Amino acid sequence: MKKEFWLERWERAEIGFHQNEINPYLLRFWQALSLPVASTVFVPLCGKSMDMVWLHQQGYAVLGVELSAIAVEDFFKENELSPTHSTSGKLSCCEADGIRILCGDFFDLNKADVAQVGAVYDRASLVALPPDMRASYARHLAEMLPSGTKILLITFDYPQAEMQGPPFAVSVNEVEALYSQYAEIRLLAQEDVLEQNPRFKQRGMTRMNENVFLLTLL
Predict the structure, then answer these.
(1) Which among 159, 143, 147, 149 has a CA at the least distance from the CA of 111?
(2) Is the peptide bond before 167 cis (omega within 30 degrees of 0)?
(3) How many other CB atoms sit within 10 Å of the CB of residue 9?
(4) Which one-letter DSSP state was computed for residue 146?
(5) Would you state the pLDDT for residue 154?
(6) 166 DSSP assignment
(7) Residue 155: phi, psi to the nearest 5?
(8) C-alpha distances in angstroms, 156 versus 60, 168, 173?
(9) Which residues are CB-neighbours of 11 under 8 A, at least 6 positions away?
(10) Strand-strand pairing, 40-44 and 117-122
(11) What is the distance between the alpha carbons of residues 180 and 40, in angstroms, rounded to a whole number?
């Protein structure tokens, strides 16, 4: 999937993937990471997620990366924050009140950019990527971060032929295939959410699960 797809979605305000509430799995399972307060949490492909605000309210520094400058600008504006601006390699940076968002391509990040990261929250990153990009994403993420880094990962699993992504279907088996060489993998929850999403059921979808994983990098 090309960068232009996401940039055009933000330009047209076609952002049905954006949640105006805190993700319930983040609320339920974040404590499983046992992350010390004041640690830095990395949120890849962060958009303007309110989850970053919640993480900051829990006492964490937040580092996001987002392709769309519109999303970054909207995040700070909607949360009434006035960011400072700088650059970091190929990425531009906006920062205010302990929340720092790098604007640019995730694959342009390097180890120095994430050197202070203690954990990763991935609700909308892996599932936003088509199959041919996921292995590169997992490898780049794992190679940048130090051993012991924990990742709270949320995925959707449904018959891919029944709906065109994103969000794409990413099964338990695929998560294991992507990350088993890099991390210990623990499935925290697997829930059938089809009845809670009638718009997907109306489109003919027969199954939709959400899976929550805790990964610990080797």
Answers:
(1) 143
(2) yes
(3) 19
(4) P
(5) 97
(6) S
(7) -130, 160
(8) 27, 7, 12
(9) 70
(10) parallel
(11) 24
Measure the CA–CA gap between 113 and 91, rounded to whole angstroms: 10
Q: Which two tokens stand for residue 163?
A: 């709906």
Is the pTM of the predicted complex or chain greater than 0.90?
yes
Dihedral over alpha carbons 140, 145, 147, 150 (to 10 degrees):
-100
Spell out the residues 6+ positions from residue 204 whose beta carbon is closer than 8 angstroms to its own.
162
- DSSP assigned state of 102: E
How many C-beta atoms lie closer than 10 Å to residue 8's C-beta? 12
Instruction: Name the strands in the sheet holding 117-122, side by side, starting at the edge strand that comes first in the sequence.
Output: 84-88, 91-96, 99-103, 61-66, 40-44, 117-122, 150-157, 209-217, 183-192
Q: Which domains does the chain have, with CATH numbers?
A: 3-10+22-30+37-217 (3.40.50.150)
Scanning the structure block, which residue is given the tokens 């392709």? Answer: 67
- What is the per-residue DSSP string for 59-100? T-EEEEEES-HHHHHHHHHHTT---EEEEETTEEEEEETTEE
The phi, psi pair for 8, rounded to 5°, reads -70, -35
* Rounded average pLDDT per 10-residue block, the chain, 218 residues: 72 68 96 96 95 97 96 95 92 97 95 96 94 96 97 95 90 98 98 86 87 98
Spatial distance between the Cα atoms of 102 and 117, rounded to a whole number of angstroms: 14
